[in-house]
Each structure stands twice: as structure tokens, then as C-alpha cells.
Amino acid sequence: MAVQSELAGQPVIILKEGTTRSRGRDAQYSNLMASMIIAETVKSSLGPKGMDKMLVDSFGDVTITNDGATILDEMEIQHPVAKMMVEVAKAQDNEVGDGTTTVVVLAGELLQKAQDLINKDVHPTLILDGYRKATDKALEYLEKIGITVKPLDKETLKKVATTSLSGKVVAEEKEFLSDLAVKAVLQVAGESDGGYKVDIDDIKIQKKAGEAITDTKLIQGIVVDKEIVHPGMPKRVEKAKITLIDCALEMEKTEFTSKLDIENPDQMKAFLEEEEKILEDMANKVVKSGATVLFCQKGIDDLAQHHLARSGILSARRVKKSDMEKLSKATGGRVVTNIDDLTTKDLGFAMLVEERKIADEKWIFVEGCKNPKAVTLLIRGGTERTADEVERSIHDALMVVKDVVQEPKIVAGGGAPEEELAHRVRDWAQKLSGKEQLAAQAFAEALEVVPTALSENAGLDPIDILVELRAQHDNGKLWSGVNVLSGKVEDMNKLGVYEPMAVKKQILKSASEAAAMILKIDDVIASSKLRETKGPEKGPSGAEEET
Ligand code: ADP
Ligand code: MG
């Protein structure tokens, strides 16, 4: 192996024992292979007619999904290059929230085409150059064909959300869920620099298995997964004035152990009375502010609870910091750090604060806030698995709506933009020379994997469809794509199958980047894994590979 070489009969040891190394074509071949296998795995789940995957983890827990990022994440992949493909899907998910399957499938196809070229003796560097130029061109064309829309147009946004949901396990309810997603995003959207900005974290997702998907609700406020702290407090407060406090309503504990000398019962009594008075004072400050509801980020002492209950203040303690921030955005209240500073002006408002039982838990609902800048989606679904998939799907829907609100540009789907870009890139590639042209053409062909996979998954003949698609795009039919529901090539723009420009752009960029990164590797040097202590029976001819 390459670990040592001979120099005048003397071995020169460079790498640690146990290190494996593969280089040149060997390394490339195995890397391309690994990436293509990953792409192949998720390909069958692309599009509305894609299949689902059942994933069983090492604890036996089952996930059923067709979300590219989730599939790859749960697969616990070992191969370092295959892991890079997983990273691509994850990055796509974080950036734009959709197109995770497509980006992996496209990267895989780019590598497949690259391998064909390598087999024809085209050097990877030339392929890289060709791909890079083709990507830039494709992005430029994409920008040209994009349709500009109004950022707050509900109809368009709903269509975008519906498209993203149509491939999901929960697609039956896509109209219903899209509507919720659009309402939620528009509620929290804020103006910025002449456009709009959405922080997806302002939409709290609170999930509980049970009931049906259609019982999923958008709440104009926050659902806090805490119980009311004291049984004597009201369970329901209308027109609530809400105070938010992030300090403890408890006696301060000293840093170090202190000693108190008490010599007689009177002193003890006085001491306890003093403590009680301080706690009562704290509770009174809340009462005096006019609050009827209290959310405290820290603890509330039993005595303080008692006083609050007597004054009829609905209170919850140990509320998460993130929830305190959302409560503040939803109710318009200020989070107060020092209870002495608390005034009426700091209070937030909600039409109703109520503790409700959701399945086996009690949660506090803060609803009917005035123009809240944070809202909650209360997700329901028959079983744990359904609720999980609803959460994943609604995440995609929220993200695509956000994408369009922030960058109000869309394209039609069904492989139409990919086919159009393939067409234009092919035309442009004519001008390139020799091998670069081959690479650019390979890039164009790779783009066609999207309509091909969509038709394959719908049980259609991909060759027939591709021939038809190419002919229509030759005739200038920009938005001809595969309508997988009718099984025909149709105008996807007329059908209203829309996707965000941001998603398509990110797919092109990330897939090319990943392909380039993988193509550039010609040497893999891997240190031996840290050996696990398995048991005593491991002999000298143990399982370790020889170097
Ligand atoms: P991804 O994880 O990449 O978003 P999806 O399974 O969501 O993968 O599939 C997305 C693809 O499905 C896109 O190319 C989109 O245009 C296409 N698509 C969505 N709805 C339709 C439809 N009704 N007809 C044809 N293609 C569709
Ligand atoms: Mg999708």
C-alpha cells in the first residue's frame, strides 16, 4: 500500500498504521459511486407521485416520509463522500426549506454524466470548468424566465405552498394546510428595506398526536406547554392583561451557605414573617400593575403563588426563554427583569388566556392577540407518526411561502424550468470549444433528470415524455412540463403549479457546488477508526484490515 515506500531498501513510513488510502481513478470511482447511490435512493421519492420511505432507527422507531433531507438524515450514512451529499440536502433545507430531493438527485446526475466523460478520457478539470460556466449561464437564464409576483398575494402564495405539499404523505390535506401556512407567514411578515422579511421562528410549532390533521389550528397568539401553577387560580381569563417577568418570584438564595443564629421562637417567627412579607410584596407588585395573567421565566415561591391565586391571577412558571420572547411579540408586552420596574405600560394583551387539556397534557392558550407578531400552529394528526410528518410538511410549506414573500419571484414546476434551462444551455454550449462543450452539454442533459424522474415515478414512459417536452420547448413553450396527475405534457403555468425562484436557484447552486467538490477529490486518506473494545475473543488475526 501507499503507506510506505522503499528508499534504498529502507521503508519510509509516512502515514500512521491502519491508514487507508486510495487515489486517482480508484478514489474518484468510489466517490462517484457513493454519491450516485445516494441520489438513486431518494430519486424514487421525487414529486407528487413519488414513493415514501420507511426508516427504522437503531431503537426500532419508525419514520415514514418522502422528505429528502429527513430520509438522508435518518439513514446514518458512513461513507465520507455520501455524507457530503447529505450535507447538501441539509443546507438546502436550512436555506430555502424545499427542493431537498431535487438537489441530491441533480448532484447525482451531474456526477453520473461526469463519470461518463471521465470514461471517455475527459479530464475532471475540464469537466469542472464546463460545469461551472454552464451553472452561471443556467442561473442567468433562470432569472430571465422567472415570473415576478406580488409578495403578499394570498392566491399565489397558496399555490406555492400547495405545490410543496403535493408530494407529501399528508397531500390529501394540502389545501387546508397551505391556507394555514400562508396565514401564519403573512401574520408575522414585517417590512424591511422596501420589501418584506419573515423570521420563521416567530411561528411556534406546537405538536400533539391525536384528533385529525384537519384539527390543526392557527392560533393568533402563543400556546405555552405549561400548566397553571396553583389550583386556586382561575383557569380562564378574558381580556387578559399579561405580565412577562424573567426574574424569580422567590427569596434569593445566597451564593454560599450562610448561618442564621436564632435564639428564641419569637425571632424565628419574625424571620418567617419578614420572608412572607417580601414574597407578598412581590405578588402585590404584580397585582398593582393591573395584570390578570403572569408568565414567569423562573420559579414562583409557594407563598407568592398563594397571594397571586387569592388575587385571581392566572400564573405559569418556568416558561422557556424562547416562549417569553414569542409571548412578548404576540401580546405586545415587555419582558420585565426587575419586578420593581413593573408598570401598567409593560403589560401585554390577549382576548383569552385559558388552560386546556390537549390529549394527556395541560397547556395554556394565549389567543386573540391584537395583530400578533408571533403566532402558533397547533399541529394535530391521528398518530405520532402522522403528526411528525405534518410538522415536517408544514415546515416546507412555511419556508416556500417565506421564500416568495422575501423574494417575490416564482417559476412553474413539473420539470418545466429544468427543461427550458437544458434547452437554452444546449444552445449556448454550441459556442464553446471541444471538451468544454461536451461538459456543458452533459450539464444540460443532467438537468433533464428532473422531468425524467417525475415521469418515471408517475409510471409514465420517460422517453416519450422527454421527446414531447423537448419538442414543445423547441417551439418556445416555456412552461411545458410533466403534469404527473394527468400523465401528459402540459402548461404548468396554466395549472398553477408554482415554486419559489429562491428554491430553484439554490438547487442549481448547491448541486453544482457539491458535484464540483466531489469531482475534485483524487485522493482519499483515511485514518483507521478508533478501535472499539468489543470483547476478549479478538485474536491477533482480528477483524482489522492489514495495511
Ligand atoms: P423536493 O424535496 O425536491 O422538493 P418533491 O418531492 O417535493 O421534492 O418534488 C418536487 C418536484 O415535484 C418539483 O420539481 C415540482 O415541480 C414537482 N411537482 C410538484 N407538484 C407537481 C404537479 N402537480 N405536477 C408535476 N410536478 C409537480
Ligand atoms: Mg418539495
What are the SSEs and their pairings?
Blueprint: E1 4-7, E2 10-13, E3 20-23, H1 24-43, E4 53-56, E5 62-65, H2 68-74, H3 80-95, H4 100-119, H5 124-145, E6 147-148, H6 154-165, H7 174-188, E7 190-192, E8 195-197, E9 203-209, E10 217-219, E11 222-224, E12 236-245, H8 265-288, E13 293-296, H9 302-310, E14 314-316, H10 321-331, E15 335-336, E16 348-358, E17 361-367, E18 375-381, H11 384-406, E19 409-412, H12 416-429, H13 434-447, H14 449-457, H15 462-474, E20 480-483, E21 488-491, H16 492-495, E22 498-500, H17 501-519, E23 523-526
Parallel strand pairs: 9-18, 12-13, 12-15, 13-14
Antiparallel strand pairs: 1-2, 3-23, 4-5, 6-19, 7-8, 10-18, 11-17, 12-16, 16-17, 19-22, 20-21
Helix pairs in contact: 1-3, 1-4, 2-3, 3-4, 3-17, 4-13, 4-17, 5-12, 5-13, 5-17, 6-7, 6-11, 7-11, 8-9, 12-13, 12-15, 14-15
Bound molecules: adenosine-5'-diphosphate and magnesium ion (MG).
Describe this structure in words.
- With 547 residues, the chain is an alpha+beta fold.
- The protein has 3 domains: 4-148 and 412-526, GROEL, domain 1, CATH 1.10.560.10; 150-220 and 373-407, TCP-1-like chaperonin intermediate domain (GROEL, domain 2), CATH 3.30.260; 222-371, GroEL (3-Layer(bba) Sandwich), CATH 3.50.7.
- 46% of the residues lie in helices and 19% in strands.
- It contains 17 helices and 23 strands.
- The strands form 8 sheets. Strands 11, 12, 13, 14, 15, 16 and 17 form a 7-stranded mixed beta sheet that branches. The chain has a 3-stranded antiparallel beta sheet with strand order 6-19-22.
- Helix 2 (68-74) runs antiparallel to helix 3.
- The N and C termini lie close together (7 Å).
- Residues 533-547 have low confidence and may be disordered.
- Magnesium ion (MG) binds next to loops.
